[in-house]
Amino acid sequence: MVRKKDKPRIIPEQDKRICASICFFQLTMVLSCVAIVYLSVAVYSPSFKAFKAGYDSEPVICQTIEFKDPKYCNWASCGEWCLTKTSGYCPQIVSTVRRNGTDIQFNNCTRINVTQCPQVDPNNFKKYNCNNGTICSNLHGLFNCSNGHCKNISEFMLCHHTADGPSIDPEKDNSKLNGYFECYGPKCTKIKKEFRCDRYCGKITTADVNVIIMQDNDVITADCEEAVAFNEANGNNPPIRISPFTFWKETDGMIMTSCMTVDRYPDKITATDCLNGTLLDENSIPHPFMNFTQFWKIYDNSTTVVDPTQRYLPKQSNLTIYNSSRLLINLEGCVNTLRGECREFGEAHNKNGDNNTAQSRYRCYYNPADSANVIIRYDLDQTYKFLLITLIIPSVLFVVSSIALIVITKSVKVGDDAKMRCVCCSDYDDSQIDHAFATASKKNREKDVYELPDDVHLCEEVNINPMELQIEQPDLQNEMIGSTKSLIPLSPCEESLEKKHLDECNDRTKSCSEKSNLPLVII
């Protein structure tokens, strides 16, 4: 079978750089548009709202006074995803707002000791299912029950109560176990009136100390010589920074105060936001230890203030700005991170001071003209920087990609061969490409050579001209219509050949005639 030789490629390949550039700039423009639309809701609108909110840029102190997690959420301190209504976890936190207390430092301190009394986690209470057999036939202690499921709270807390309700058998009347019960063996008595519980904590050292500092749920005791202040209170106005001023000495008696942060060093103690400073009579302090119940009783009954002018360690009531305000994580009261951030926020701000525990204390921002809400996150400088970044980057990408696509539209042209070429950077223009295409086609036709079978070459070996094997078309003008002369195949061997080659030529003619049906075109 005749095989055609491979021809050189006439049409050049498509320049992949052009296709890649178009795809890249199109993708950049689409993503920048999507980013601008999303950021308009997540960043642009909240940023402009923050600039017009009217909140004071100087932080104040907030303390939690109420915490709820209701099933029906009409408002929330923090909600996951700002584009929908808050659902699921719904913390509702109410705070009191006040000015910062005094920043102080105790000098020349010894015998520094820390007693920790963390808040009890209700999840650690041992649980009993009184609906299951005889599990509750021998209970001892104070239990909080709901539909026959009881938790033993007496393992972690000492409660001061009186069992004044009816008595029931927890094994037989387990469905009636709802509320607080004092149980001893097979008998549980309900508690109707409210009562108070104290945590089981370590003993607080009181021997040879003259300083007691309460920080969160820890109590720090030490023996110090003096205390200096770095600012003084100004009522519910911003505090005034001053040079270090000694406002207490060890000869003044035992001092007790509550601070937000406390840092301990080998010979000194520094604390921030300290208030409710009082002087204690050493004779009223149990020695050498006291428990937390005694400590809270002393703290509540202490009335002798450190500074009558209320400039150093003032009472909280003198610093109060708003007694009750809703606490929000930001102006919108929601976040878009979807990483459980609201649950972490609730756990960090949910201590409301029940059962002689410390209230959550934190910095917040307030609106002088509106007491409805206070917020945790409010930094106008950071908001302005973030707004510029999120506004400039997608806008620049959109403009650059748009200009690039316009330039590509003007500089790239599709040729007759359906290939895109850069007009500015191509080596040929359209006329040069067409001329090159025509020249290559002409040369290809001139060099269009076909391979012949071996039998044809054998004919050449015996001086047979292959051109004589071409079947010529009859001349219709000179031949009679219907003549069979043109149908007679021409023999490659004529009388001009010598006789000694006649036999050999006849054999070759037979072989060549068998190949005459092939479409031989010799140019």
Question: How are the SSEs ordered, and which strands pair?
Answer:
Blueprint: H1 16-51, E1 60-68, E2 79-80, E3 92-98, E4 102-107, E5 110-116, E6 126-129, E7 139-146, E8 149-152, E9 157-160, E10 167-168, E11 179-185, E12 187-190, E13 196-199, E14 204-205, E15 211-215, E16 218-223, E17 226-234, E18 237-249, E19 254-259, E20 261-264, E21 268-280, E22 289-290, H2 292-301, H3 316-319, E23 320-328, E24 334-335, H4 341-348, E25 361-367, E26 370-375, H5 380-411, E27 412-414, E28 420-422, H6 430-446, H7 454-461, H8 502-514
Helix pairs in contact: 1-5, 7-8
Question: Can you summarize this structure?
Answer:
24% of the residues lie in helices and 30% in strands. The strands form 7 sheets. Strands 4, 5, 15, 16, 17, 18, 19, 20 and 21 form a 9-stranded mixed beta sheet that branches. It has a 6-stranded antiparallel beta sheet with strand order 6-8-7-11-12-10, with no helix packed on it.
Number of domains: 5
Number of strands: 28
* Protein structure class: alpha+beta
Report the uncertain regions. 448-452, 454-464, 466-500
Radius of gyration: 49 Å
N/C terminus separation: 19 Å
Characterise this structure:
The chain is of the alpha+beta class and 523 residues long. The chain folds into five domains: 63 residues; 104 residues, no CATH class; 129 residues, no CATH class; 78 residues, no CATH class; 61 residues, no CATH class. The protein is 24% helix and 30% strand. It contains eight helices and 28 strands. The strands form seven sheets. Strands 4, 5, 15, 16, 17, 18, 19, 20 and 21 form a nine-stranded mixed β-sheet that branches. The chain starts with 15 loop residues before the first helix and ends in a 9-residue tail after the last helix. About 10% of the residues have low confidence.
